[in-house]
Design a protein that fits this description.
12760_t:CDS:1; mainly alpha
Length: about 60
């Protein structure tokens, strides 16, 4: 099984800002994260991050 990689809090915050300003589909967000940081994430990860988007954006890093 491949080594598990996670996004840092800073990356999650940056992704939330991007998602707020660029309405896209989950597969498009997956591709954006992979191109930007070279990290493969599942669509379920995108969903979990976006569920806490408002909280993350109110707690700027």
């Amino acid at each position: 099984m491949p080594k598990r990689t996670t996004l840092t809090d800073t990356q999650k915050f940056e992704f939330c800002v991007y998602a707020r300003d660029n309405k896209k589909t989950r597969p498009e967000y997956v591709k954006w994260i992979e191109e930007k940081w070279g990290v493969k994430v599942n669509e379920s990860t995108i969903t979990r991050i976006l569920q806490t988007k408002d909280q993350r954006l109110s707690n700027e890093i």
